[in-house]
Amino acid sequence: MIVLMSLVKYLSSFNLMLHKVGRNIAWVLVALMISVILLQVFFRYVLNNALPWPEEAARALMIWMMAVVAGEAYRKGSFVAIDMLILALPDKIASFLKLALYLLAGLVLFKLFTLGIDFFERGFRSRAASIHISRAWIYLAMPVCFFTMLLSNIELVLREIGCLLGKADEYALNFKEK
Questions:
Q1: Euclidean distance between CA atoms 41 and 88, whole angstroms
Q2: Taking a C-beta distance cutoff of 8 angstroms, is the pair 178, 13 a contact?
Q3: Tell me: the pLDDT tens digits for 139-156?
Q4: Phi, psi of 133 (to 5 degrees)
Q5: Which residues pair with 127 in a beta bridge?
């Protein structure tokens, strides 16, 4: 039990630090994306001379913005979820079901992470047409996204195991941690 609690606390601290950094990076990326879009609007509608690169740059910034906050959204349960069944079940059965779903999601996230790495490596073979960088740097968002989600998933699995062992109060996510 002590080992499990130590793992949860360590992973929770690490995830919280990653999520805080990710949020701050996301704000910068949003500001850059808006700036690039406004620049394109100015050039297209005021100067009547559209730039070739802002749309692709804004898309890359949006992809990265999503990638750096996806782990936090997953940890907080902010993705769309249908939880009627879990809420209708007794606590122990609901906990077993959540654990099974977290384990399944972990397998999917691991597979997506490995596919993301392959996609990143293949990205070095092509360049983004208008911003003249290797597509690999845009595609790197995929493994980053799935890795942070996988870390959050591991924490949720450990917390659910703690809940199943009868310590739901100690292992439940509280809003200060979210």
A1: 51
A2: no
A3: 999 999 999 999 999 999
A4: -125, 160
A5: 134
Q: Please count the residues of the chain.
A: 178
> Taking the model in full, what pTM does it have?
0.88
Q: What percent of the chain has pLDDT over 70?
A: 97
By the 8 A CB rule, do 135 and 126 touch?
yes
CB atoms within 10 A of CB 2: 6
pLDDT mean over 86-107: 90
**Could you tell me the two tokens for 129?**
């047409």
Task: Locate 120 and state its tokens.
Answer: 């990143």
Q: Which amino acid would we find at residue 47? A: L
Distinct helix (H) and strand (E) counts, the chain? 7, 0
Residue 168 pLDDT grade (very low, low, confident, very high; cuts 50, 70, 90) = low
Domain-wise residue ranges, the chain: 2-171
- Report DSSP letters for 82-130, one per residue: --HHHHHS-HHHHHHHHHHHHHHHHHHHHHHHHHHHHHHHHGGG-B-TT
Judge whether 14 and 151 are in contact, CB under 8 Å: yes
Amino acid at 55: E
Q: Quick one: pLDDT at residue 2? A: 85
